Amino acid sequence: QHLVRRYPRWPAMAAATPEAIEATIAEVTFADAKAAQIAAALRMIAASHPDFSLDFLEGWSVGDALAWLEQLPGVGPKVSAATLNFSTLARPAFVVDSHVLRILQRFGFVDPQAEIETARDAVMAATIGWSADELAELHSLLKYLGQTLCRADKASCSDCPVQTRCLTAMKVSMAQQAELASSKAKTVARRSASANGR
Predict the structure, then answer these.
(1) Which of 11, 76, 144, 183 has the fewest CB atoms within 10 Å around its CB?
(2) pLDDT: is 173 or 48 the higher one?
(3) What are the φ/ψ torsions at residue 136 (nearest 5 degrees)?
(4) How many CA atoms lie within 13 A of 130 on its CB side?
(5) Is the pTM higher than 0.90?
């Protein structure tokens, strides 16, 4: 918001120095690196599209559009998908952030070591024909689940609405059942030993 307020037109932002951009976004993490990336990305866009419009991506395949965006400094799989899906382009690209990635890993949809790009591609392959709005909603729901019940520090599997289909929740449930059975067996053994000792 600060950046757009200070530079309401793309050419003005593109003409700004990285230092001026950094001063404007000083509150964000890694402001210096992000400022340099913004300045470099805008220069690259201006070289081929001086109007700074990304509307040309509407005619491209989602894969090609993602690849083009990911050539820009600081743009990875999350930002490229967000640019396509959450903007006026409204392209069907799935956005994977740390919360969504954790859910997909714990659920067993992707490998526990899967990276954001792998997870994004797996979801997009499984949701062919979905609209940008549907993918945005899936992102929002998974992110909310990750922020509330399936947190990084502690998962509340027993309260999770998808626990019966989640690999991690099933493992947690089996471990709890095994612990309960072990506890019961120890109690029975203690009572039996106590009864025999009388």
Answers:
(1) 183
(2) 48
(3) -65, -40
(4) 18
(5) no
